[in-house]
Each structure stands twice: as C-alpha cells, then as structure tokens.
Batch of 3 targets.
Target 1
Amino acid sequence: MTDASSLDTAVSILKKGGLVAFPTETVYGLGADAENPAAVKAIFRVKGRPERHPLIVHLGDPGDLASWSSSVPESAELLARTFWPGPLTLILRRSRRVLDEVTGGQETVGLRVPDHDLALKLLRAFGGGVAAPSANRFGRVSPTSADHVRQDLGKDVDYILDGGNCGVGVESTIVDVTSGDPVILRPGGLPRERLEEVLRRKLEVRGSGPVRVSGQLDSHYAPRAAVLLVPPPEAEGRAKELRAQGKRVALLSVGDVTAPNLYASLRRADESGAEWIVVPLPEEVGLGLAVADRLRKAAAPRS
Ligand code: TXA
Ligand code: MG
C-alpha cells in the first residue's frame, strides 16, 4: 500500500540525492533528481550500466517540456499533446537544464510524462525532473512489480514505491524528433500504428544510428536461461525435443508473450530452474512489435 506518508518519504529521499524506485505504466524506474550529478551517477553504479548510455528524464506535466528542451519541433508538440501522459519518450535537443551525466554527453535528451497515478504524484510533489532507467541490473529483464525491483536491486535502492503490477508491461516507445523526420529508436508501449495515425506518415524503426540506445545492444532484456524463439505452431514440438535431450525446459504460452505478462513470464521461467525457455514469437503488430523486439534481444548471443 502506498499512502501520503510514503510519497513524502520518496520525495524527501529524491531531494537528498537518494534513489527511489517507482512504478510507471510501462516498467518500474530507478529514479534520481535529474539535476543532481552525484545522484545520477549513483544510478549508473547501482545498475551496472555504462556511463555513456543516456537516461530518460521523467516529468510531471507535459508543459515542462519547454524547460528541458531547447527547441520543440511541431511534430514533438503534436505527439506530446496527443500521447502524454503515456508510454512515449521523445528525443529532443537538450536545454541548459540537462546535465551531461544524464545524456552521456550527447546534445539530445529523452523526455517522458508517465501515465501512472503514483508516478505523477511523485513527480509533481518533487517538482523537478527525475532521471530513471528501468529498475533492473543492466542487460537483464525489466521489473514490472515492486517485488521484481526488490529481487534485483535489494538494498542498493533507498526506497521502493509500490504501485502493484505495471499495466503496459514493456518500456516506452522512443521517438527521435530532432530531425524533420521522426524515427522510432525503440518500439514500445505505444504502438507504431498509433503514432503513424497521428503523424499521418509511415515511421521507420531504426536499429542503430548516431545516437546510442542501450536497448539496441545485441543481448539485452535477457533472462538467465537460453531463449529459443519459434513460430507458435512449433513451440510444443521444440520443447519436447529439448526435453528428450535431457534439458530442463520452460514452454511459454501465447498469453505469456503479451506485453503485460512478458517480463514476469521470463522471470518465472528462470525461477523454475529452466535451462531453455521456448517462446512462441508473436505477430509484429500493435504491442507485438515491442514484445518481439525484446524477445529477439533476449535470444541474442551473449558475450
Ligand atoms: O518505459 C520506459 O521508458 C522506462 C520507464 C522507467 O520510464 N525507462 C526505460 O529506461 O526503459 P532505460 O534507461 O532502461 O531505457 C531508456 C532508453 C535507453 O536505451 C537509452 O539509451 C535511450 O532510452 N535514450 C535515452 N536518452 C536518449 C537520447 N538522448 N538519445 C537516444 N536514446 C536515448
Ligand atoms: Mg532498461
């Protein structure tokens, strides 16, 4: 349960430069005051994340956009107006308010207003921007419950605001609006089709470009077990084959590979002691695009 006093506690910890994990509609974030360089550095330390991977700044109000970005193109205004609060991160030119520690030295910043009551209360009571990556160790599966955060980060986080399970379940869609042509850098909780409707054009999903997106590393969002992606009709057969070879296998269902269930299902499979997770690959439409993207990264070769 989260009451007014836990919100007060979370705000005062942020103000003192501490780390607060908080729920959003996508996944839990590991938050720090975006204008406190030492607090931002602590995020990288706790996550084990390379320092040049930029963080998203979370805002309590779409109107805050102007003070965190030095130029807001029309497409950005339209998207913010239509989809914020919501599972959309906009990459914009940064304003002077944005620290190098947050952007990894890049001239752009990722901004988003999450669509979650508790997150919005926290952000509004805090009053500033909260830099937050997903609240998991670098490269692992993102947390969609407060328990996941506790399991991953334990005492390394000063406070966890418990908002139950995340409704969307995959990270925000990231759209780079710094050039005239908006481009999707990471498919996510806002379907590509909805962006295309509003922008009235097709959007490209760019795998890699001049900006660094940590989710684009080959292996990412990965459970401990090896992941085998297969067309749905083959899933049972492949699981049987592996079992016949003496392997411990977890077989996910079509329902397990929907956005709200994906990460919890991968975690459960790990907890069952599986060496292999056999996964029916969903169709890449709507939220299936983000789910398939995460599954490909979970299945990618590990270094
Ligand atoms: O749904 C979400 O986006 C969650 C919740 C907590 O808001 N956050 C999240 O953060 O997924 P993280 O750090 O795990 O992923 C953010 C992605 C990273 O891949 C990062 O590289 C990219 O956003 N990013 C941030 N700022 C960027 C920038 N200026 N240019 C390009 N990519 C950027
Ligand atoms: Mg992440």
Note: Residues 208-212 have pLDDT under 50 and may be disordered.
Target 2
Amino acid sequence: MSPLVEEEAMMTPPMVKRRRSDIPRSASSSKDSKYQLRKFYYQRYILFSKYDEGIQLDEESWFSVTPENIAKHIAYRILKSLGDKEQYTIVDGMCGCGGNLIQFARISPKVRVIGVEILSERIDMARNNAKIYGVEEQCDFIVGDFCEVMKNLGPIDAVFMSPPWGGMNYIEHKKYSLNMMTPNGFDLIRLCRKYLTPNISMLLPRNVDKQELKEFIASLHDADTSYDLEENRVGHKVKTITAYFGNLQDPDSLTDSDNESR
Ligand code: MGP
C-alpha cells in the first residue's frame, strides 16, 4: 500500500458515514481557515481513534491537538524515562481538549495527570474526551494560566507542554523561534525549571530553529543542559518535533538527534 493510500485508510474506518454537519465551522470567515479545518476533519481518526464516540473539539483544538499515535508515543517515552515507580504525576500544562492528557493516563493506571488549561470550555471538552477513553478518574483539571498555576502545583515527576504556535501559519516561517509562542516558549522552559521540575517535554513545530534552541539551553548555566529532539510522524510525514529535557531525554540519543516516533 502506498503511504498516501495507507494514510487515507487510517482516516476512514468502514461503516462510518461522513456527515456534512460534522465538519467543524470556523469562527473566522476566511476561506483558507475553512479549508484548513476541513483538512483536520478528514484526519479525525488520526487525531482521536474514538472520534465517533462523541469527542469534542473547538476550532483551535482541531488544528493543534497532537495526533493520537504521537501522543501515545510521547506518553510511553516519558513514563519509560521516569523509571519504575509506585505512582507518577505528570502535568499537561496546556491540555486543550485532552489529546496528550488522555494518552498519559492510558499508558499506565499508576499515572495521575493534572491538566491545566486557560479556557474552562476546553477543560469541559477534555473531561468529556477523557471519559470516552475511560481515564477520567486518573485526571485532575485546573482552569488557569499555566505560568501562574505551576507556582502552586507541588511535587511532580514531569511536565509536558503543547503551547499555541500562533495559528496555522507557523509553517510560513523558515525557522520558527520559541519567541513566537504565546506564552513565550523560552520563558515557559525557564519557569518550569524554576518552579516545577527539569523533567520537561515540549511539542514544537517541525520548522523549529534548532540552533536557537541549542544556544538557549547552553545559556542556562547549569549542569543539566543536555536534551534531545525527536521527529514525530504520522505514516511517513513528519508532523511535529518533541523536545525532552532533564531525565526525560533518551540516554541512548545524542543532543539534537532525530528519532522517529512509533
Ligand atoms: P499542520 O500545520 O497541519 O501540518 O500541523 P501538516 O499536517 O503537516 O499539514 P500540511 O498542510 O503541511 O500537510 C501538524 C500538527 O502540528 C497538528 O496536527 C498539530 O498536532 C500540531 N500543531 C499545529 N499547530 C498550528 C499547533 C499549535 O499551534 N500548537 C501545538 N501545540 N501544536 C500544533
């Protein structure tokens, strides 16, 4: 099967009819935006394999939720790098509608996930979606600005962040700077290290400026400034890059390495 046919097959399970009314409506009237959202709708089973069971997303979630196979891989990798423990507490700092949070909880019943999100409507969606995957009991939700919430979270094992990249046009930049994120990506890393843990993972665009990130990490002036970067794919296509810091980095991979997500 060619990669494209394979990808199409993953998107359209048998017996499910597409209904025009299911296609998300864009809050903006731009044709581009409508086209883009349609693209994500056609990828709905890649985003959530249980989409038909009542998964809820708003406009921003459609284009920023992590595809399920990538979210599952990140969860697996983070848990593995934390070693054997009785219980794990993982914070998803910008949990949105719950794509990553759900996979953290699914990876082991020993995982407790704290999902932080600034919009309460999105927390409702994340709770609904976690319920569909049968993991809502493992999830706690906090509505608030993560930069503030993190100051009072207490001990945790790892933090994951999938911040907004400034909309769907992020790819038009030849090199994407973490300064383009809101909140600023470099500030997020600094704050997490200060208030939470050095065990940080962050979802980045595939056009991220790797040199800038390397220089930023080197400037942090402490012993633990190594990290690794991993390309994440759906089929053969690179969709995102995940950065792992602190104990989350793979001891077998060198800084700046590119490992394929499975
Ligand atoms: P994409 O821009 O649709 O690339 O985003 P794709 O699918 O390669 O499209 P094409 O038209 O270039 O072929 C790919 C993935 O990046 C999305 O499915 C999301 O998981 C993630 N992503 C995209 N955006 C705009 C964001 C964002 O703002 N924040 C986060 N955290 N993830 C995003």
Note: The radius of gyration is 18 Å.
Target 3
Amino acid sequence: MQERKNIITAEQFTRAWLEQVFQRADELQQQYQPTLAGKIIASCFFEPSTRTRLSFEAAAYRLGAQVIGFADASTTSTTKGETLEDTIQVLSSLADVIVLRHPAVGAANRAAAIATIPVINAGDGTGQHPTQSIFDLYTIKQALGRTDHFHITFVGNLKYYRAVRSLVALLGKYPNITMTFVSAPELRIKDDMKQYLSQQGIQFTETADLAETLGVTDVVYQTRMQQEWLTPDEYSRLKDQYILTTALVDQMKPQAIILHPLPRVNEIALEVDQSPRAHYFKQAANGLPVRAALLEYVLGVWQ
Ligand code: NCD
C-alpha cells in the first residue's frame, strides 16, 4: 500500500518536489481536468478564512471532486465538547482528504496522527500555513524568474504570522537567499525560526527600520497586525507602524515586488494596488492552481 501523504509543515518539502508542484500548477493554469472525479474533500475550517477555504474548494470543484465541510465551527459538535481527534476519526470514514484550519498550534499534526486519509494543514493557529508558502514562492518565481539568489524583507507582525513562519522555513532550503525582518522588538520572529535559519546557513538581519531596506530588497512581504493574537495594548500601539505608501514603494527597485497573503487592513495603502510592484492579488489567484496541484498530489494523481 502507498504511504499516506500529508502536508503539515514547510520543513517537509524538498526543492525537487516544489518544482514538480510548480510545473503541475503551470499545467493546471492552462487546463483543469476531472482528475479527482468521485473524490470527496472534507473542508474543515475551525477558524475564519476567505481565500484559503474558497481556493481549496474551487480547486476541488475544478478537478471534478465534491466538497463537504464547514466554515464555522460553531455549527459543529465541537460546541458540544467533541475533541478534534474524534471529529477527525469520523471524517476519515466519510471523505478522501481533510483540509484543516484550526486555532491550535499542532492541530494538523494531531489530526494526521489519527486520520486514515491525507491531511492538509490550512493554518494551525500561530504555527504554520505551508500551502500559502508554496504559492508565495510560485509567485516570486513568476515575477523574478528564479527561486534563489534574492533578498526578501518580511514586515510587521513576524511573531504570530504563520505564513511568514512557513515561507521562512521553505526559503531556508534555497541558496543565496538574504532575509531582513522588519518589526517592533516585541513582534520579532520567534527564536525557533532564527535557530533554523542559522542551521541552514541563511544570513538574516533584524531591524525596526523599513525605509533602510526598501532600496535593496527584491521582495517585500507585508503582514496584517492580527488583533486575534496581539494584546489590546500591542494592537493599538503597533497596528499602523508600517504602512506601505506610494512614497515608500517608489524607493523600491523597479523589478521588486510586494507580497501580502491578505486580508489587508491598513498596512498597504490602496493606491499602491496600481503599482506594477503590487503582486498580492496575483499571489492570491495563484492559490487556486497550486492548491489544485496539492490536492492531486495527496490523492495520488501524481507522485
Ligand atoms: C492569513 C492566515 O489566515 O494565516 N491569510 C491567508 O490565509 N491568506 C493571514 C492572516 O490571517 O492575516
């Protein structure tokens, strides 16, 4: 029997496998075929989501699969006290793959330990968001023409932001990536990621000054101040600390790009959307073919 395939953290990916995902996503952008006809995707979102849930579900439908699930955990037996483990065990008998978003760090790992079908981590609290990081890099590759030899600057809420953690983990596998982390001291990226980067031999700098790095970076990765994880005091002090305005964006290299996993609140001025450097809506659109490729992978359409 084939080994069950899960997507839990970005550390598990290899560069060769990511290239296969990108190639399949390129093919799917041209044409979707019913490669998953007859399959059932369980789309289980215990936390709010717009893009992640809907792009997984749209990908499932594009590939001919059908979707069950929930977008609001308050309608499920979790409110009656059911454990995640029991829910997962039951879903294993109903569907072919579980796409799971959950507020607890490690939830996808716990689910994968119980499930008898593949589990895809669609965000586990402040842990990881591995599928996001795959199409973040796919978007970088489309824009810069390469997946290595570039300088990326992560901005804002680096402590709690799972998409940053996953992209840092993923980029740690590529040569000649330079990273700058711009944040207030209390929102710096956590020590485990810094240790990982040191192990991988990746150069990184931490600073509170956004302007000083704008002229040398190839990718600016902006983040939302997440009221749900910050203390009220942190939120009110820090929410508008780093706003990308046209004046700041004009200091970037002509070919440099701005990414943001979205949703945005205030941190990118609306007028920046007109800039050729604004790639965040393309990035969001890339979620569809990449997640389609990932559903195919865990369900054995390609190896
Ligand atoms: C992010 C998330 O949920 O981690 N959004 C997303 O999936 N594109 C970022 C956020 O919550 O702000």
Note: The chain has a mean pLDDT of 96.
